[in-house]
Amino acid sequence: MSTPTPSPAQIRAAAASLVAGVAHDGRSLEDLLANDPDEGSARGLKRSLVYGTLRWHFRLLEVLRCLADRPPEKLPPTLGALLEVGLFQLVSGQTAEHAAVAETVSAARVLGHGRASGFVNAVLRRFQRERDSLLAAVDADLGARTAHPKWLVEQLQRERPEHAAAILEANNEHPPMWLRVNRMRWSVAEATGALEAGGWQVWPHPWAADALRIEPAADVRALPGFAEGRLSVQDAAAQLAVDLLDPQPGERILDACSAPGGKACHVLERVGGRCDLTALDVSGPRLDRVRDSLERLGLSAQVRAGDAGDPSAWWDGRPYDRILLDVPCSATGVIRRHPDIKLLRRARDIPALARRQAALLRTAWGLLSPGGTLLYTSCSVLRPENEAVVEAFLGAAPEASDHTPAATRGWPARPPGAGPGYLVRPGEAGMDGFYYACLTRHS
């Protein structure tokens, strides 16, 4: 029996519950959506409301603070979230205003807040009347205008003053869809031709050799060549990691924090499957995604559950020619894909992450053979997780050299004094934010 299609009010109520799950309960949106029962247009509308509301949460919260007769923090979580959903609809213009107000009021009843339906109506109607003056007042503050937490705005202004505003603005853009061409089964030219014949517009990337951007975005199952393992979905910034790692046939290679496996598969594609690759991850369940990708692409690797910080439990003592160390991080470079990061990440998280990253780098370095290459990467834009970790490591490891300037020759130049490694800023050349440090061992 098919599931009944939810009403517009039920969709908005469900969206508010998801927003409250992130904003109040601290749960990740990925986890909350893991068993989404909705399909088709209802699913699309609900997700559009959820992603949009979370993307603009900190701005909407300040607007709500100006409108309501009590602080938003004092409202029941789902009621506060529903008001944000209603405000997002009015601000974005994606829904006719009369429908946005009426269905949000109805959603209050669905959520069990029937007695507050008049309050919801009054708040939204007042916003309609005072919209321009309210937004002008709220938007005078950079953090509110770009909808980011105060700590992140201040840290970016302190660490990257010349690019802070651009990073914050890029975090609110809708990311493009990037594909990776499996050069074992297709050429970039063949992929481009097939996609264009299927009705997509296609653009290559100026730096990433295997990357194609397509419009409009599509369900991967609809892409020509996907089922046959000729294409994968992966942001161009992540693809650049393999360009810098520069794997060679016959080498012994470790992908130290592998799940979900996109970079491991790209390494194998790049060398025609002719390397001894270990795909390691501390999460056994997440390795299932690595295995699924390997199977779809017709590739093979040693898939191991283990902690890169404790090699005694899984390492056989033979050094690696190349190591890819994509460290766990704040993910502040991929906010445009995961807007819940704005709400879930805290300033106090960063020092602990940096300590973990430094420990992983020191340990992984001990697994690298003389003459080998270790590529340290993160999807953070914060210096304590990137340049500071690598700079401290280089200062303590005289046998290590920063090969990044040579490896990134041809990429846009970075100013003198930028620190070791290379940061791609969110939105730069259409990519996610990503940091790379290509380190070589000369003894």
Top keywords for this entry?
single chain, alpha/beta, 12 strands, 443 residues, four-stranded antiparallel sheet, 18 helices, eight-stranded mixed sheet, 14% strand, globular
What does this 3D model show about the protein?
It is a single chain. This protein is α/β, with parallel strands linked by helices and 443 residues long. The chain is 44% helix and 14% strand. It is built from 18 helices and 12 strands. It has helices spanning 8-23, 29-32, 40-55, 57-67, 77-92, 97-110, 117-138, 142-146, 150-159, 164-170, 188-197, 236-245, 262-270, 287-297, 341-344, 349-365, 387-396, 404-407, and strands spanning 177-181, 201-204, 211-215, 231-233, 252-255, 276-281, 302-305, 320-326, 368-378, 400-402, 422-424, 434-441. The strands form 2 sheets. Strands 5, 6, 7, 8, 9, 10, 11 and 12 form an 8-stranded mixed beta sheet that branches. Helix 14 (287-297) links the parallel strand 6 and strand 7 (302-305). Helix 4 (57-67) crosses helix 5 and helix 12 (236-245) crosses helix 13 (262-270). The longest helix is centred in the first third of the chain and has 22 residues, at 117-138. It is globular. The model has no long low-confidence stretch (mean pLDDT 96).
Largest sheet data: 8 strands, mixed
Total DSSP E strands? 12
Mean pLDDT over the residues = 96
Q: What portion of the residues fall into strands of 2 or more residues? A: 5-15%
List the helices and strands and how they pair.
Layout lengths: L7 H16 L5 H4 L7 H16 L1 H11 L9 H16 L4 H14 L6 H22 L3 H5 L3 H10 L4 H7 L6 E5 L6 H10 L3 E4 L6 E5 L15 E3 L2 H10 L6 E4 L6 H9 L5 E6 L5 H11 L4 E4 L14 E7 L14 H4 L4 H17 L2 E11 L8 H10 L3 E3 L1 H4 L14 E3 L9 E8 L2
Parallel strand pairs: 5-6, 5-8, 6-7, 8-9
Antiparallel strand pairs: 1-3, 1-4, 2-3, 9-12, 10-12, 11-12
Helix pairs in contact: 1-3, 1-5, 1-6, 3-5, 4-5, 4-7, 5-6, 5-7, 6-7, 9-10, 12-13, 16-17
